[in-house]
Amino acid sequence: MVSLRIALRYLFSRKSHSAVNIISLISTGGVAVATIAIVCVLSVFNGFRDLAENRLSVVDPELKITPLSGKVIARADSIAATVARIPGIDTALATIDEQALAISGARQVAVTMRGVPSGFNRVSRLKEAIIDGNYTLLDDSVDCAVLSVGTAIRLATHPDAMTPLALYVPRRLGRINPANPMSAFRSDSLAVAGVYELNEAEKDASTLFVSLRTARELLDYDNGEASDIEVSLEKGIDPESAKKQISAVIGDNFRIADRLEQEEKSFRMIAIEKWITFIMLAFILLIASFNVISTLSMLMIEKADNMKTLKALGARTSMIRAIFTWEGWLISTSGGLIGIITGVILCLLQQAFGFIKLAGNEAQLSVTAYPVRVEATDILIVGLLVIATGLFISTITARFAPRR
What we know:
Blueprint: H1 2-12, H2 18-56, E1 63-67, H3 76-84, E2 89-104, E3 107-116, E4 130-133, E5 138-139, E6 142-148, H4 149-155, E7 165-170, E8 185-196, H5 201-205, E9 207-211, H6 212-219, E10 228-233, H7 239-250, E11 254-258, H8 259-262, H9 264-289, H10 291-302, H11 304-312, H12 317-353, H13 376-398
């Protein structure tokens, strides 16, 4: 194509006015810097997503069964036993999640109470997260609780504290005496056995674990009810295949979620933040691309005599416009290509050496450097964005190309 060959010659040839060369370099550099920013930011979001996925395995089971309607699963122990007999299933345990009020001394905190059975360590690695005390829910016939670090701090309690932990939940059954507001609650006194930390703000803030028996007594569950059934798989078993097997056995009245689906809201939020940031940086790229207009305008003035010569040789106005359209697109694309390559190299260096650190005390951080991961889909999207932006800007500018 003649117009493309002429545009390539204009791109690499020295201009008679040095200002044109300088403006051209500025245009290319602006697109490159904006592209580097997009590639790096998207890669950092990928890194934080990977970090969140790695944290899931501590307390989230491989599969969780919850009711599609209602709050609890009736005869959950029986269903869990049925699920546990399915080939490929290692363990299936009924558990309870409920809101409660924890009181220690003069302090009180609204908490998420999790009632778990004795074999809970087979579906969770909560023991590995204990930072004080021990993971035990029953000690010498004394009911115990294991608190998240946030709960322990807010209640000012610890495993060696002499003050017991009081747990209150709204009474489900029976009459309530208006003259005695406390009759509206069922309560139990527990010893603090341990404190754990997951390095997840939401789960570390206000959660505690008690035995399944304690939770059922507080909630008046007498028929084996549970909020969900947590399942662990044998090694090498595909979660999707296991989900289909379980659904075929227990029916369609339950939702079976893997680890990512259990944290669907969190991962959706990460995705939303990632693409909102992408849109904002895309506008910055668009603004940076407007420098191409200055380059093309100066080039049109400089090459005015050349355009007259081409006109005299029979070139149409459409060909003249095509030359400058290609020229603007080449400037943007070359800047974008430089930016993508540089951004990928920077991300790979950060991934290998972690030279950009997170702010804060490194002794208290589980990850000290910004996590990054380059994803081919992101690079493709950035490349298409650069191409589209460059074509849009150059097409508009080329319409003002000289016609005579």
